[in-house]
Recover the amino acids of this structure.
């Protein structure tokens, strides 16, 4: 296993370590030095030896660079993160699910491998497996190992030394257990995030909204834009890439178009983020808490305004 991964990330270069939350930014000249050290079979440069000892408490002195540091190649694409819906199938029937259908189908193992190589070549360093329930996919373990071997950091068990982040979904059925959920998350995870704003399915079906817990809706954060489609993207079980899990219009068929298809994704994302439809001309748009793709899903579900919009809370501007 590599001790560190050097990777271009947009216009920057970083060095990360599997299982560690700390990393470092490095200039291009140091990135090139690492790349050259691998090609020339040199030992780990002194500056990285010192930095690794300080950041991670490990000693890389005298270690061969080619077996110690995975140097990710430069890419014309600037993506650093991706989510992969390896399969929509699930062995539970969660009321708050955002998927409209949960068919257990997707790519073959060979196609999954080809997709993972494309994600690597797109610059993806942080990959999140999602679903459905990803761990029941017949190829999950194989795909996990493949992604890890390609230098993508994936969340795993805390006991394995990899930072685990938990999502706490608060619904009307478990709101009375919030404190116990927080205690459990603090025991097993490095960090956790609570989600109480239950959304419709991504294609606008309202059924999940019935699971919302009154009194737990958090609308305190103003939406100030996001880099969806520019710095990260989502891939569904069939290899179609979209700006995110919610904004799924105009998908890019990666299996047919390859990486060239991702060049169209930023423009697709920009078009989806325009305030249109039921949000066009809104006088509260400067303080809106909801991104446009999510607002569209609420509107198509004919959700009550108080489940997502400030107008529904009496926050009017006169």
């Amino acid at each position: 296993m590599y001790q560190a991964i050097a990777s271009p990330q947009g216009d920057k270069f970083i060095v990360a370590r599997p299982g560690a939350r700390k990393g470092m930014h490095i200039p291009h000249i140091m990135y090139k030095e690492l790349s050259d050290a691998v090609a020339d079979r040199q030992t780990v440069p002194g500056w990285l030896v010192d930095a690794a000892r300080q950041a991670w408490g490990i000693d890389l002195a005298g270690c061969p660079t080619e077996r110690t540091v995975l140097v990710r190649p430069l890419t014309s694409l600037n993506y650093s993160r991706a989510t992969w819906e390896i399969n929509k199938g699930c062995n539970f029937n969660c009321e708050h699910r955002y998927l409209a259908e949960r068919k257990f189908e997707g790519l073959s193992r060979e196609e999954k491998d080809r997709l993972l190589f494309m994600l690597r070549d797109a610059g993806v360093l942080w990959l999140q497996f999602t679903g459905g329930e990803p761990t029941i996919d017949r190829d999950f373990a194989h795909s996990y190992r493949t992604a890890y071997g390609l230098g993508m950091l994936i969340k795993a068990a805390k006991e394995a030394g990899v930072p685990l982040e938990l999502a706490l979904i608060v619904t009307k059925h478990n709101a009375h257990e919030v404190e116990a959920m927080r205690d459990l998350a603090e025991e097993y995870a490095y960090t956790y995030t609570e989600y109480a704003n239950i959304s419709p399915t991504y294609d606008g079906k309202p059924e999940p909204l019935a699971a919302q817990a009154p009194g737990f809706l958090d609308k305190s954060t103003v939406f100030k834009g996001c880099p969806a489609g520019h710095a990260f993207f989502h891939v569904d079980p069939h290899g179609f890439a979209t700006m995110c899990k919610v904004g799924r219009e105009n998908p890019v068929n990666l299996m047919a178009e390859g990486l060239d298809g991702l060049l169209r994704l930023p423009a697709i994302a920009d078009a989806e983020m325009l305030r249109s439809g039921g949000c066009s001309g809104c006088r509260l748009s400067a303080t809106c808490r909801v991104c446009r793709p999510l607002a569209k899903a609420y509107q198509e579900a004919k959700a009550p305004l108080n489940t997502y919009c400030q107008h529904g809370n009496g926050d009017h501007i006169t």
Remarks:
- Confidence is low (pLDDT under 50) at residues 155-162.
- The chain is about 25% helix and 15% strand.
